[in-house]
Amino acid sequence: MNINILAGGPLDTLPSFEKYHLEEDVWIGVDKGVFTLLSQNIRPFRAFGDFDSVSDEEWAVIEKNVKSIHRFRPEKDETDMEHALNWALSENPKRIRLFGATGGRMDHFFANVQLLLKPLNKHAALSVEIIDVQNKIYMTKPDTHVIHRDSEYKYISFIPISGDVSGLTLKGFKYPLTDCHIPMSSTLCISNELVNDSGTFSYKQGILMVIRSNDL
Questions:
Q1: Same domain, yes or no: 126 and 152
Q2: What is the tens place of the pLDDT at every residue in 59-85?
Q3: How far, in Å, are 139, 168, 179, 183, 192 from residue 187 at the CA level?
Q4: Strand duo 144-148 + 135-140: pairing
Q5: For 184-200, what is the mean pLDDT?
Q6: 48 in helix, strand or coil?
Q7: DSSP state of 1
Q8: 152 pLDDT exceeds 80?
């Protein structure tokens, strides 16, 4: 099972949901994202949020069409997206995709990026990524990771997130590296590309944020 979570980010940042709307995929709506899913004829399995960004008319549509709604007070310790992600993690899916998590307010964007760190320890084998029309973002721990060519997101960047990254080796890339130390302040690993159908990146210490992107 894959779980797709749609938050209330700007509509022009959303990719086409066609390839993500498969029979085994479960959709979850967060706040305004619940209404967006219903507008695209996708009925969310659950809804999370304080729903302070929807109108009375939109809330009426949500109440009528979603059976399981988790509504919170605006004064809370977790964001709506974090509540939804916590539930998704408890279901032990194969993959979690976050949509509507970029664009708009920068504080929400950076909070959503930080949420990608949450599964790294207890759910290390689980793929959790943010996807929009121009980017895919995910976190990795030290290991050897295989990465495949994707024509929709051809540029690949590696950004240290938690301290420096040591021993970074890139194979199969336009700009390869061997056992390289990457400090937090470095932009060395921005905008690389695969030269083959796949490549690998490996490192010994730190946490890397991987961003796959493209020009619109």
A1: no
A2: 999 999 999 999 998 888 899 999 999
A3: 17, 14, 16, 9, 11
A4: unpaired
A5: 96
A6: strand
A7: -
A8: yes
